[in-house]
Amino acid sequence: MEFSKSLINWYLQNKRDLPWRKTPQPYPVWLSEIMLQQTRVAQGLPYFLKFIDAFPTVHDMAAAHEEQVLKLWQGLGYYSRARNLHATAKQVAFDMGGNFPNSYAGLLKLKGVGDYTAAAIASISYGEAVPVVDGNVYRVLSRVFGVETDISSSGAKKEFTALAASLMPKKQASEFNQAIMEFGALQCVPKNPNCSVCIFNRDCVAFLTGKVNQLPVKLKKTKVTNRFFNYLIIKDANGNTLINRRGDKGIWHGLYEFPVVETETLTSEAETVALIEATTALNFSPKGIRLLHPDVIIHKLSHQKLHIRFWEVTSDTVLPEAVDIEQIKTFPLPIVIHNFIENNWQ
Which domains does the chain have, with CATH numbers? Predict the structure, then answer.
């Protein structure tokens, strides 16, 4: 097929030199695909290298404590993926003798492995002719072939999967899948792609009809909830502070954070001080309370927008459960808290 042949030739000439491409073994392919879901390669690559250094094999990851995995994952977001990563490592190491399933159907049985990841591993590691469908694939196919189906609709995935399958050379499944993802990442980018140098500009429906910026079609918008967090950085008589582990539900579950007072709106400083004084999170009477950062820190998640302030709360007594800052740095923390500690702690 002309499309596939041109795409694979482009890939062989332009592909990035990435460590997981040096071997088709399923462990590094699986690790990279989990990390790169909704994460750019530039951001994900350092994490991949840290994980491979800490856990050279799936057995090494399986033997690690979950908190070590979460700490290394810190900053990538979507921490449920890190938990699934660890659970899958244990599943493969302990139940499968360290061998990943060697088929698309088998890979789907692993925790946290969906259609996309299973297709990527099956095609790259085992040459199985199953197409990958992710954001890059939606974008390339919708533009080149003028597909105006809403990609958030119920039938879109099936339609695009069928189209990708019809284009895939059965004996070059690995090259084709990697090529179409790489083409979407480097050439057919979401905004302002350089169509003048695109290998498909003579045939691309979106380019020829002026619809490059309109495709792919996505009508469903994600509803974003605003939340307002006031983190309490408690300093006792020894300069130590308190830290809590979040529960097993909601955002950042299982990670550690400072005691928090959440409000329904952005309250004034005076209102917030009164709320902090009355909170049951404190089992002592504060000696002083002050805002540590003049600006509200905005932290965006997929479905939530967090408005965060940090408050120093001092006590003239020694709190037996308090720990020092160097110890806190060893815990898995939400990246917004990690960054605040790194940039502001004195």
Answer: 2-214 (1.10.340.30), 225-344 (3.90.79.10)
